[in-house]
Design a protein that fits this description.
Number of strands: 43
Distance between the termini: 97 Å
Amino acid sequence: MILDEYQKKRNFGKTPEPRPGGGLPGTRTGRQFRFVIHKHDASHIHYDLRLEHGGALKSWAMPKGLPTPHDRKKLAIAVEDHPLDYLSFAGRIPEGQYGAGRMEIWDSGTYIPLDEPETAFGKGKLTLRLEGGKVRGEFTLARMKGGEGKGNEWLAILAKPEELNADLGAEGTAAPMPRGLRPMQAVLAGRPFSSADYLFEIKFDGIRALSYVNGGLSIMSRNLKEQAFRYPELADLAGHFLAGELIVDGEIVALDEQGVSHFQLLQGRINLTGKSEIAAAARATPAYYYVFDILYLNGRDLTQLPLSRRKEILSRLFMPHKHIRVSEWVEEQGEQIFHFARERGLEGIVGKRMAAPYRQHRSRDWLKFKAVRQQEFVIGGFTMPRGSRALFGALLLGVYEDGDLVYAGHVGTGFSEDMLQRLHAAMAPLVQEEPPFRVPPRPNEPAKWLRPELVAQVKFAEWTREGLLRHPVFLGLRNDMDPRDIVREEKILEKKEAAASGPREPSGPEVLPPFEHPPAGDMWLEVAGRELRLTNLDKELWPGDGRGERYAKSDLIDYYYRVSDFIVPHLAGRPLTLKRYPDGIGAGPFFQKEAPAETPAWLHTEAIPSESSGKRERIRYLVCDETAALIFIANLACIFQNPWLSALPDLARPDIIAFDLDPVDPDDFEACLEVALLLKDQLGGFGLRGYPKTSGATGLHVYVPVKTEYTFAQTRQFAELVSILCQHVRPDLVTLEQPVSRRAGSRLYLDFRQNVMGKTLASVYSPRAWPGAPVSTPLSWQEVQRGVKPADFTIANIPERLQASGDLFAGVLFDRQDLMEALRLGSRFLKTG
DNA sequence: GCCACGG
DNA sequence: CCGTGGCAACGCAGT
DNA sequence: ACTGCG
């Protein structure tokens, strides 16, 4: 019986594969027979071609897949005949069994023999046409001559490359093959969602690269640098597509033991140029290419097709292999995938709108959701190496809690070879007998303890209930931080998430791509259905000179547009005082409260009685509740936004207590940082959290969000009390004197007097009328501790910062604190102090 | 930035 | 036609 | 009552 060999190799008690003989012969019409191509993930990934013939399946194992236009001849090893039931078999063959590993159906369909099948199989040469769900084309199978024992070696040959999958030849539009395409990029989004309009993929942490296949292979990084030579293991990429000419999009990655990509692992390879170096690195840290899009195929531009169609085409053409893989995707279930990503310690996920075309820039059609967190940790020890690893195994990390170093978990991945050595050298002189931890951990490997002086930057998925890190990855050493300052950064966002676990928000704020505008003159812009006329876009607001970059009004509007999702929530409901700079920061600005005559009808205005001497008139204030309003206001050459400290509907009850830290010497920002920390301590005595931001000018603002329950008289009094305490602690540093002449001898004027109805401060994320267009930027307390330069935050880089770190001022929107409780807490503290 | 006013 | 003026205003504290 | 201040 021809299936004897099949039977002999298998134990049907253990393998799910079909027994021979049980199957139906199947229906067949004329000269059509059935075939299947299995993708078999055994000791090596390979493809198995099985052709129905003589009541069984003639089978070949094809280690490099089917022949393709790029690789017209590929080896095919004839293996034992399989039963017909194998046509529909898919499953996992268990460990220890013949052919152990996952067997999946990659393609199936019918084939038409183009010569006489009865004799062709025996002669060792047959030509056939495959009509599968994926493959449609003409192939020849020919037995090679070779010496003894070579009788099972065949060649699979693609007979007519130009006819392969010819049915796809009308997709897209005819175009010559482009060069230097830019990859489409995702916009950072907040909360993941589920939507039938989107598919979701894993976000890779590697090098984004477009691959051009056209005779040769070119792999281009985002900055259009050739990468193909650097990753020899990707060389046969071209041979894994069933088309001769194409452009695909994907990411080059290196994977850890868990199969998770980390850019750090690739770091050692990104600059190599020497051939032998590259070969060695490829052995030590192999690279993988995950393909997720197709932009061009056989003379046709596919970028205007919807993503869903591009995915279909890609999966028809692509034979994944060990180093060249397909990025799996799932439709609709964004939240589930995000959860999965976080569990596995993956960077995050990407949501892509299925109807969207491919665009060569950042677009909201692709949204990325980050699942990782990051902070600094003190290195308190390390474990001995295991296996092939040299020098050490993992770093033992800690954070300070009440003056003690508390163990926070260990990190054993993310080190480059070079970093491993540098770390070891840095740690060696710090070894000590005593563990530095309050409760020393007991790791599986023997540990060495260190004087807690080194600080590591680590990213991780989340804190476990036990307060340890889940999926930590080492990012780098920091030499700019005092280890004593390292504490667990309480994630306020987590609290928010927990509190908001009920009804779901659609998604968090996103940084928008710049809008397209003419370099000069006027234009109409439609924002969320609002028509806006933008004027004098080329008007220079910040002159370019030695002190700062040149920015035009278009840059201001562009900035506000991009960050609108972040700034609008901080402005919503708050009357604005306008300060307008129609002739730029060098010329005289003017104030305006009354909404200008050209204010569109849809823009929210609020008529508020003016308290001013006698006149019982009302002023129609602008209120910025939406992006379109923000853009309108920016077009008025309002460089920064001046919102009230109270919001509608109760303008008499502030929800923010503001402290304005104004250095006496404009260059003495150090004084601001120092006083901010002092203020943080004093607020802490009342159990209150403050949120710091640069003013954008010379100083710093600290906001304390409170419940909308107190009068301005109360908030002002409280601000005064806290300020007096600060002044009392550091009389050398802090003055509360209003007249400038009396501030001499102090370094900082602590202004609590702004807490009055109708008074304003420049809002968070507002650019300022100073050279270089600095932006009022929220800081983490870590940054206040370690020191920053306010001029480093400008309209040129804040969108990126927001994209990376989100809204550090989000607390001001929801962390409404109880002033009465604070006073109770503080009075206790005052009595004892 | 733009309107209203006056020359 | 052009040039120009207007476009905010609170409350505190010190005198 | 006037002024400086933000």
